């Protein structure tokens, strides 16, 4: 029994650079007006606290987003936390076609992240596991380990029955 597992997180440098820029921009007025903070201006203190809490929670949220993928004898399992709390399973019997391919994220699937139309769950990169279900629904699950995913899919390809 061959099993493929992968876990991806948002860890692109530009996301953290953007967060630092927003944080710096939000705090600049308070640094320039630090006399208000020293004098105990409650409105300024509360605004500063709310900004820090909001940015902290944003950072924690970004760090918690995670795409977990597993391919085994049952099918393809995926979880895009925090949207999915449990693994979603696409059973081999439900699949009409499956392959690992390079894609253009904007043109083909509309960018990064979890999309409302359910077509794409990915965090970064240009490679993904493309699945076409018997219901003709298409899905792309991003991967950073394309070769390993393809080898594992090849192991179970005989379980895919085309109709």
Give a brief description.
The chain is an alpha+beta fold and about 160 residues long.
Feature tags:
163 residues, alpha+beta, PH-domain like, 2 domains, five-stranded mixed sheet, 39% helix
Describe this structure in words.
Keywords: Membrane, Transmembrane, Transmembrane helix. This is PH domain-containing protein. The chain crosses the membrane at residues 13-32, 44-62. The chain has 163 residues and is an alpha+beta fold. The protein has two domains: 10-64; 67-159, Roll (PH-domain like), CATH 2.30.29. It contains five helices and nine strands. It has helices at 13-32, 34-38, 42-64, 105-109, 146-156; strands at residues 4-9, 66-71, 75-81, 88-91, 95-102, 113-114, 120-122, 127-133, 138-142. The strands form two sheets. A five-stranded mixed sheet has the order 5-8-9-7-6, covered by helices on one side. A four-stranded antiparallel sheet has the order 1-2-3-4, with helices on one face. A hairpin with a 6-residue loop joins strand 3 (75-81) and strand 4. Helix 1 runs antiparallel to helix 3 (42-64). The longest helix has 23 residues, at 42-64. The protein is elongated. The protein starts with a strand and ends in a 7-residue tail after the last helix.
